[in-house]
Amino acid sequence: MTVLLDAPTSKDTHVAGLLRLATAGSVDDGKSTLVGRLLFDTKSVLADQYEAVERTSRNRGLEQADLALLTDGLRSEREQGITIDVAYRYFATPKRRFILADTPGHVQYTRNMVTGASTAELAVILVDARKGLAEQTRRHTAVSALLRVPRVLLAVNKMDLVDFDKDRFAEIEADFAAYATALGIEHHAALPVSALRGDNVVEPSADLAWFEGPTLLEFLENVPVQTERRPAGRFPVQYVIRHQSADYRGYAGTVASGHLEVGDPVVVLPSGQRSTIAAIDLLGRAVERATAGQAATVLLTDELDVSRGDLIAPAEAAPAAVRDVVATVCHLSEKPLAVGDRVLLKHTTRTVKAIVKEISAKLDITDPLAAAAAAGPAETDEFDWDHDAPAPHTLHANEIGRVVLRTASPILLEPYATDRETGSFLLIDPASGDTLTAGMSGDPLGVFS
Amino acid sequence: MSTLTHDETAPAHDHLRTLEAEAVHIIREVAAEFERPVLLFSGGKDSIVMLHLALKAFAPAPVPFGLLHVDTGHNFPEVLAMRDRTVAEHGLQLSVAHVQDYIDDGRLTERPDGTRNPLQTVPLVDAIQSHKFDAVFGGGRRDEEKARAKERVFSLRDDFGQWDPKRQRPELWRLYNGRHRPGEHVRVFPLSNWTELDVWQYIAEQDIVLPEIYYAHERQVFARGGMWLSPGEWGGPREDEPVQTRVVRYRTVGDMSCTGAVDSTAVDVAAVITEITASRITERGASRADDRLSEAAMEDRKREGYF
Questions:
Q1: Candidate from A8, A221, A435 with C-beta closest to B170
Q2: ipTM of the assembly?
Q3: Which residues of B touch A432 (CB under 8 A)?
Q4: Best A435, A436, A437 residue to mutate vs chain B (most B CBs within 10 Å)
Q5: 3 state SS of A242
Q6: What is the model's pLDDT at position A42?
Q7: Could you say which architecture CATH assigns to the domain A322-441?
């Protein structure tokens, strides 16, 4: 019996019309085939696309159309038969629209999975039923946990190659449940499938009659989406809308989390000016309340000096401004990140100068818990655990580490574990403008302290 | 399964609210962070939807950037009329770059097949440079084509407007990085996550007016390369291509020489939505000759600076 994700019982979750999911797994696990199967069986692949795949498959001497070809977009990917980048796929059923971030599986592409997972509400991790929880599966699960993807599903693929063995599935499911729980993933589940044959992907399978759970697509259609993780409203000001003839001064932005209501006493940070929300405009419609993810325009009762990068928050539940940042980061760029580097830090709508003060540890993302356990319990100095290992000083592409930064001006950064929107940031190379590093404030995996 | 019951209270089209909010966020981000943005506007449905979103994003203030159109010289007159009406209605600033000027003075040569879509790239890049535009909004969607599926929302282009898929910046969370060096610019695609169906559902919901050729009408057409093309000054038909009258509509609107009409009886938005829901062919597959050139046709054109 599979552990199903919890039902949408409370008002903070609902079956939204749009689900963002990320898939992870290697070519060998059949991820491209699974994604191709989902697209094909939901009729999201149309005749001309399918004919192109059939033609290419024939040219390569394949007997069947290789559905994996549907997802390989770039010439080098097709030539090498690999996926080198995040690709976004779109499909829909009468119940839901899906945005699927398809990410490659190898360790040198960890950054791509981090990218795909950053916006995902669900991670689907592929595993080969013959292999069970491989090193790669552990890494994908850990990345999902690190990025605080709210829900993680293990798709146990190639069930046909283990004779649809119920016990084999149960074994993998139990291993996964234990690992996911240890990583602090609250909502997780496992499903048996055969992507190649289509078993339990869109249609149930007679060979998997013992499985009492839903098909993969049923699961995707019904899994709840967390819309409000916390009540406190966070509204980073994106753009100031002035309209002189109407004497209008509105603060445009996207509600990062929580909600805002007309009449709420608010504080504008970092200046600390106080006011009250006079009106909220939701793209031309006056509303009483705006919630996380909505693009709104907020009007205040007082004439204040508010500009891009400021944060409007409830007066009684405002975040503290910080200049010293301790974060877990994934380095993305081929150019390494080193202690002493001067960078730009982009957090919500505010970009500030920052300096890398310390790179205190690297994290083995394949098995972060083992690394934490080996280091022993936290001592007085929270970075003390790795005193045997010298501080790494540099981080290379795809490496995950613990970084201390000092910013030139204050930012309203909150722990990533509390809030993905106000807890995340980018480090940018001031010279080239390239994105260097993805940052998550605090210790989302709870392994460093 | 009992624990996975559907919440019937969810609004029917709340995916459109999500996509709309995301697009508005992107448009506002560009207006805030760039010096001279411009919105590529052809009068086609995707650019009309993009402009509609921009109007909403800054209301009650006007849109804080202008429009740019690369006119191939073979555009549908109905679409140009719509372009000009829209510009006048909203008091917008429109710049037009003409492919014909480039052909007249020899900077570009007409292709033997008469297709002018690939010829847009040079005038586009020139216009971006001469106006010093640093951000250019395009209506491209990732569902259109395989190479587009890999492109970022903020797509950095070098001095020549070229796209390098391996130099793309990762995009995480809601954090878009638009930093660029002098001479470089960023192409921005607010509709990246929309599908053709989303666009049409939004057009229906928001009562957006489109050029009439998107709906079924009687038209003189001739067959070429498996598509119905419209005769016109651009050169078609040849002697061996008989013209006939059919009831058709356009799924995409581009250069007349390579945009095909499809047989259709869909005379209004609702009928179009029903039709594309049932369609077994993608909009580009049905109506764009330029994408059929090779498996990597779009990727190659993007690398050269195309949208």
A1: A435
A2: 0.88
A3: 181
A4: A435
A5: strand
A6: 78
A7: Beta Barrel (2.40)
Per-residue 3-state assignment (H helix, E strand, C coil) for A362-421: EECCCCHHHHHHHHCCCCCCCCHHHCCCCCCCEECCCCEEEEEEEEEEEECCCCCCCCCC
Residue A380 C-alpha, separation from nearest chain B C-alpha, in angstroms: 34
A18 CB near a chain B CB, below 8 Å? yes
Distance between CA atoms of residues A116 and B298, nearest Å: 24
Cα A255 to Cα A348: distance, rounded to the nearest angstrom: 11
pLDDT digits over A264-287, tens only? 999 999 999 999 999 999 998 999
CA dist., res. A321 & res. A409, Å (int): 9
Up-side HSE of residue A233: CA atoms within 13 Å toward CB? 28
Give how far B248 is from chain A: nearest CA, Å.
20
Cα distance from N-terminal residue to C-terminal residue, chain A: 36
- According to CATH, the superfamily of the domain at A13-226 is P-loop containing nucleotide triphosphate hydrolases (3.40.50.300)
Percent of chain B past pLDDT 90, that is, above it, reads: 44
> If you count residue pairs, one on A and one on B, with CB atoms under 8 Å apart, how many are there?
192
Interface of A with B in 153-212 (CB under 8 A): none
Q: Which residue has the tokens 């993009």?
A: B50
Topology agreement, domain A235-317 and domain A322-441: yes
Nearest to A18 among B15, B143, B150 (CB): B15
- Closest-CA residue of chain B to A294: B21
A227 at interface of B, judged by CB pairs closer than 8 A: no
Q: Classify domain A235-317 by CATH architecture.
A: Beta Barrel (2.40)
Summarize pLDDT for B194-241 with one digit per residue, the tens. 998 899 999 999 999 999 999 999 998 888 877 888 887 767 788 888
Q: Which domains does chain B have, with CATH numbers?
A: 11-197+298-303 (3.40.50.620), 212-291 (no CATH)
Q: Does A1 touch chain B (CB under 8 A)?
A: no
Spans of all domains in chain A: 13-226, 235-317, 322-441
Q: What is the pTM of this model?
A: 0.88
Residues of chain A with pLDDT under 50: 1-14, 376-388
